[in-house]
Each structure stands twice: as structure tokens, then as C-alpha cells.
Write a structure and sequence with these properties.
It contains four helices and no strands. With 69 residues, the chain is an all-alpha fold.
Length: 69
């Protein structure tokens, strides 16, 4: 399977997602964020403490990124 990364202009994401749905791509629906997930993120934003954050350069080393070939 091939992976594709694209940039969608502001204001066109909803149209693009609907197009994917019409073309029969299942992923369009799975990209929705539930209200429960939104609530978790809002709570983490509200209660997060700056001193617990790591600079991106340090945090990035913890991830295993796939190379794009």
C-alpha cells in the first residue's frame, strides 16, 4: 500500500473529506474525533503544566519515524 501526504487549503477540508467518502474510502469516517476524545484533550490543555513539557528537539528523539521512500 502506498502512503500519500497532501496539504489541504483552509476551508476545503470538509469538501475533501466528503469527496473521499463519495469515492468509497473508509478512512474518511475514521478521522472524526469523538466528543469524548475532545473532552480529554481540553482537560489536558487546561491542567497541563509548562514545567512538564519537553522541548520538541528532545521529544522527537523518543519517536520512531518511518522514512518516506
Amino acid at each position: 500500500m502506498k502512503e500519500l501526504t497532501i496539504k489541504i487549503p483552509e476551508g476545503k477540508l470538509e469538501f475533501f473529506m466528503e469527496l473521499l467518502k463519495e469515492l468509497g474510502f473508509e478512512a474518511a469516517e475514521s478521522m472524526e474525533i469523538s466528543e469524548q476524545q475532545k473532552a480529554i484533550v481540553r482537560e489536558r490543555i487546561k491542567t497541563g503544566k509548562t514545567e512538564n513539557f519537553s522541548p520538541w528537539d528532545e521529544a522527537r528523539k523518543e519517536f520512531n519515524f518511518k522514512s518516506k521512500v
